[in-house]
Request: fold
Amino acid sequence: MYDVAIIGTGPAGLSAALNLKLHNKSILWLGSPALSRKVGLSEAIANYPGMETLSGADLNARFTAQIAAAGLEITDRLVTNILPDDSGFSLLGGNDFYQAKTVLLAIGSAGPKALEGEEALLGRGVSYCATCDGFLYKGKTIAILCTDPQYHHEVEYLAQLAGKAYLYTPYKEEVPEGAGLERLPFPIRAIRGEGRVESVLLGDGSDRAVDGVFLLRNSVAPATLLPGLELEGPHIRTARNLSTNIPGCFAAGDCTGRPYQVAKAVGEGNIAAHSILEYLGK
Amino acid sequence: MYDVAIIGTGPAGLSAALNLKLHNKSILWLGSPALSRKVGLSEAIANYPGMETLSGADLNARFTAQIAAAGLEITDRLVTNILPDDSGFSLLGGNDFYQAKTVLLAIGSAGPKALEGEEALLGRGVSYCATCDGFLYKGKTIAILCTDPQYHHEVEYLAQLAGKAYLYTPYKEEVPEGAGLERLPFPIRAIRGEGRVESVLLGDGSDRAVDGVFLLRNSVAPATLLPGLELEGPHIRTARNLSTNIPGCFAAGDCTGRPYQVAKAVGEGNIAAHSILEYLGK
Reply:
């Protein structure tokens, strides 16, 4: 049982982790060791106080050095489910279960919006984890939505297993190629099926019959991640101390709203960490 | 008429100034060019994301370099009064009047609490400005509360003018010496007088008869600075977007509440700047 589980390795998660570590709390920090892709892609950050104008990649490199110096560790898991229970929270990350007294959601810009049908068909053909569920689709037909090139190895793994894999990526980078892999020309708009996945609907109104859908994203939509979490438009609703409507669950950074900026995110991570310390002290 | 007046040159004020400058707003930035004394006195700051552990003096030096690089200018005035009017705000800084469409209060840890009698006797013997009012006390007896060694030149100026000057400082640094200057052994607790200053009450219950009281502080208590401003305990009450109860007036940093931390302050400065941009756009 950890004192706190921090979900997300962007500036908000880092700021919180630094503070909670200084206070000797036991921290489970879940997310990508590559840190924030959004920060990493920034050409120039000119408004971070104390720092000369620098690229997002350089800033991420400094964050990485600071994480090592502080003795912080990142556990490379995509958290797909969080359940409040009597003693705190249970979290599902990849195939592993974790427990923590408090949770900080620092999952980035509101996380993705859930696709139509995603929640209803989750576990019924919709999966977030190639390693966990890929083997179920050996020789079958699947659709893959991949939002970050860091998951290309999972795309390759799935393409080898499946008989046929449709792939959609929202970015321009090169994607894996393979015999059974076909790139979709339009985004996946909805997942359809009665009780189980049967097809995906594309942006042009056409559909593709599939047995399963893999959503390889950096985070899961907040409402799917933690059912009952109150939103405000696409953002997590937070009080001034960054508590959410769920006791013991806090949020910080882009997921709480604009401005989507490094300074704002580190500020909120700092506030949330101190609110968590106060909550743990009760 | 400036787009925005930023009061305070600590991390919150700097973060806001950087953002508003990037958006080409006209900025009046009022405060000490020496930046935050509180930051400057920090031995080690270990939880500012992206920055190796460093002293507060080093961080202030980086801020100073960044201010120059960004082409930002600080106007060295203590703002003592802000009045909302039809087109925005009128501000009194030293002997000068300024006007701005919006105001950001980034005045540090809640500012000082007003002394008992301070508000009632302001302009009736209570003054914040040696240069402005010192000549009124030539040959007379005054009390001086000085909270920052940067005002020692004002203490010296007042001591030369006055017949007798009682001085209290809450810090350990050396203070000016002079013929008529007597250091008070206890803090000033209250300012007394019927319609005009007559005496100061000290922490030990004794009093000293005086004609005037000079309060040389880095900021003025929020309620004195901007009458009608809603507080929450010693802090300025702010909404999630850092607006105050007074339209066009925003607040950021220590003055809005704990944690008193650089990361929190820069985060709030960033949010407040974007809220100001939105307000100006209306």
